[in-house]
Write a structure and sequence with these properties.
By secondary structure, the protein is an alpha/beta fold. It has one domain. The protein has 3 helices and 7 strands; from the N terminus they run αββββαβαββ. Strands 4-3-2-5-6 form a 5-stranded mixed beta sheet, with helices on one face. Strands 1-7 form a two-stranded parallel ribbon. α2 packs across α3. The radius of gyration is 24 Å and the shape is elongated.
């Protein structure tokens, strides 16, 4: 005797699909906007009468050890150890900034004891990329 096969209907509950998609969207937007450079060790210089930095697309950091970082990732120059490849930084910034003519802000975070010979090439590279520089400083307490 042959037993007939039963067909079972399996369906995915679609009521929560919109909620799940929305939460995933928020999650990835937050991850895409985060530029975590909290692991970098640097101390800002102090100044009076500072204004709040506006929205930025990139950040360049020169840390205690005079290493260069773009959005938290170390910029390496294998040909000249410890020196900055200005053309490479300029090209990377142009890619990050894109074609947007309005929002071209780059935060520059320089350790307070860094010499001018280390940060001047960074300023030149940011300017060559057509970006607006916002130097991050600490409010001086009187």
């Amino acid at each position: 005797m042959k037993i007939p096969k039963r067909s079972f209907e399996a369906s995915v509950p679609s009521m929560a699909m919109g909620d799940i998609a929305f939460l995933l969207l928020i999650f990835f937007v937050i991850l895409a906007r985060a530029q975590d450079d909290s692991h970098l060790k640097w101390q800002p210089a102090k100044a009076e009468e500072l204004e709040q930095a506006k929205h930025h697309k990139a950040s360049v950091v020169i840390d205690v050890g005079n290493k260069y970082y773009l959005n938290g990732k170390e910029l390496e120059n294998p040909s000249q150890k410890g020196k900055l490849d200005k053309k490479d930084l300029t090209n990377k910034l142009k890619v990050l900034l894109g074609e947007d003519k309005e929002d071209r802000t780059v935060l520059l975070k320089v350790h307070k004891e860094t010499k001018a010979e280390r940060f001047e090439p960074v300023i030149e590279a940011i300017s060559a990329a057509g970006a607006e520089i916002h130097h991050v400083l600490e409010q001086e307490n009187n």
